Records
---
Amino acid sequence: MSEPFSVRITVRGYETDTQGHVNQSVYVNYAEHARWSLLQAAGITQAALIARGVGPVALETTIRYKRELLAGDEVDVTCVFEWSGGKTFRIEQVMRKADGTVAAELTAVGGLLDLKSRRMVPDPQNHFKELASDPALFGL
């Protein structure tokens, strides 16, 4: 298996709380940024999704905090899609400091929403495969 898709983020001071570490909601933003970066790297734009009449949705997010992130820290956020063959898929993400220390692990359950019917599409992996110029980034 190849290395997971990854994007590097530098923690900004305004993302920290009064304890000096990254606010819990920012971890979700980092994860979302990595997911959209993966879509872009695979050749899928937001406009292409809308033109197809679908949009990605988050259904569940679980974060396991391991070590704190502080302003100025650099963190690599990975993104691996896991396909079940149903309407949903899992995204496993690891947030790792530049020194290799795992700061957090995030697991998300997502799907693709049909923007007209407001229902989940039955085969999200096929939509990603057809839209992507590099479907291998999704493990397809």
Note: The helical segments are 24-41, 46-52, 124-131.
---
Amino acid sequence: MTAATVVSTDNFAPRERAPVWREWVWKHFGGLESDLYGDTDFDGHMASGHAGDVILTKLEANRHRVVRTADMARASDTGYFKIVAPMQGRAGVEQMGRRAWVSPGGWTIYDTSSAYAVDNPERVEHLIVMLPKAQLLERGLPLESLMARHVGGASGIARVALATMRSTYQELPHMSASAARGAGELIAQAVRLSLIELSGQETAVTQREALKDRICAYVALRLRDPALSIEQIAQALNCSKRHLHNAFAGEADTLASYILQMRLQACLRELQQTSPQACPITEIALSWGFNNLSHFSRVFRAHTGLSPSGFRQLSVTRAAALPLRPLRH
């Protein structure tokens, strides 16, 4: 029987749960910051096991967001490819200028040796699978272009991969070490085949994804420009506004809301800076393309449940309460 690690906030007082959760996430995933959207009530549970070198974790928690900066990635000892496969709720994975939303029945993959962010805007139950990078290396496979893409899971080898990940996690407590190692190798093989299939598909779906990548890259470069608009993007990319909207069809965000979310996330990161040299709130909002402070405050409160000043004060309070942590796993 393979050993498992289980942690739960149920055994802690309500005021202790958020900092304890952040510490667990930081340690378990090798350097990962957590943001709870300004919520004060939180509960979370994680159960993790090993299938050889593959790490499988079932995570159940209130809404939260995790971020890995480039500095955190460089400080990590081991690089993994990481998969999130929702069982309840949805996740939005952002990496390399791309963003993929996945719901139950789908999965996506990203690289822990590069910066990334994962949004969980509602209570979630996820299966998270970490594979050492060496297990997925395949000559001619453009792995970088496959990160933060919706791989699927409804049909084909991607569905086989998803079923293998789920069944392995479920049966892991009853497996011998050698059987678990073999199951981990099966997961790696199914994921590799899924990515090979994804990289070779020339369909309307992948063409839409390619356009979406171009849109996201353009938005990232001009996010600070208050004049950024759908008309401007269409002209710059030489396509119609209808094509721009189609690129986001089936996503949780429209193009307009995507731009707003990216601006909000940038402001959130800056508002979490607690040094005496931190920028004033108005300056932060204007620097990220908000030209109306009242509008910024309204959408910020709708997103976090707090005013910008309240969110900043909460970040200062948390920073003072948490112990210093090393940047290594």
Note: The domain at 4-200 is CATH 2.60.120.10 (Jelly Rolls).
